[in-house]
Amino acid sequence: MRMEKRWGILIISMFVLGVCLGGGIFAVEKAVEKKKIVQDEEIFVDVLDEKTFQNVYVVEKTNTEGVPLAATMETQELTQVEIVPVEILGEMHASNEEELYFNDYQIADLTAFIEALAQFTNLQKVEMCHTNLSNEEMAGLRDLFPDTKFVWVVNVAGFQVRTDAVAFSTMFTGYGWGPETQADFDALRYCTDLEALDIGHHSITDLSFMKDLKKLKILIIAINKLEDISVLADMTELTYLELFLNKITDLTPLENLVNLEHLNLCHNKTLGDIEPILHYPNLQRLWISYCNLTNDEIERIRAAYPNAQLEFEVYESVQAGWRSTEVYPRMRNVFNTNTMDEMFLPKVTPGVANIE
């Protein structure tokens, strides 16, 4: 009798649920299974009814061995974030979509576009390469939706660079050298995913466009016209840094770059106090020739790095093997493949004791 009563309740429950969902006795027949989680002695199967955009959960009772007990199966709808259709740029999308792609689209009404984006509950990425929006407008979208990654293409010295690029070089990736100036590189400020950047051999005087590039591990800014490098102070993931042939007079911004392993400062005539560069726990190579160092300063450097390769006299900044070790080809590969090499990953967390 008890079993018959339970089956009667089950049949009525399933009928009511089917009517409510507009899909017959089992509204989940056309649903797509998304995940299954075993919790205590119940299995929760999260499914999405593609027609009604509703979350429906099948709760399946099991015994202690996890074997389903068919006689106790019941179906119920649980209250979750509602999934609804959203119309955006003339297309219909589900409000729980995580990625949207609008490459080559024309955005006629930016306000309406923003209002539509706000209806998505779990949006992780929006790709909008080659649209009619300006860099400033795209950056505004990024600020409005800080939990969503916006990707677009910027013009850097005449070349197209995605804002989610991992590596960019004006040499290694075929961009070539040229008479580019400061303004040609300002758009790099939007490429905050960069981990490797080579903009050497140009006429850059101001690095302020790099202030948000905190993920950099490789940075080549040699042969420019730099005096102020204060923007580098927060780039604590840097492991490889080329600064040769500039006009640097203050090394203080390099003091906290505790992950530096390869540093080239050649031909900066008046570096000032060298104390900021004497405390790198993993330094392997330091090229610091033609910097007007005193004998005392040279000895202090030798004492600080007895196991590192040190060069104080080479005239050419890349002589004496700077580019002949395995470091150089692996770095080139980073730029050619847009993929970071584990060789250049940081090994030290600033402010935390480095325990071997």
Structure commentary:
The chain is of the alpha/beta class and 356 residues long. The chain folds into three domains: 2-76, no CATH class; 84-151; 155-344, Leucine-rich repeat, LRR (right-handed beta-alpha superhelix). 17% of the residues lie in helices and 21% in strands. The protein contains five helices and 18 strands. The chain has helices at residues 2-21, 110-117, 135-144, 295-304, 327-337; strands at 32-39, 42-49, 54-61, 74-76, 85-88, 91-94, 99-101, 125-127, 149-151, 153-156, 159-162, 167-169, 196-198, 218-220, 240-242, 262-264, 285-287, 309-311. The strands form five sheets. The protein has a seven-stranded parallel sheet with strand order 12-13-14-15-16-17-18, covered by helices on one side. A hairpin with a 4-residue loop joins strand 2 and strand 3 (54-61). The radius of gyration is 29 Å and the shape is elongated. 27% of the residues are buried.
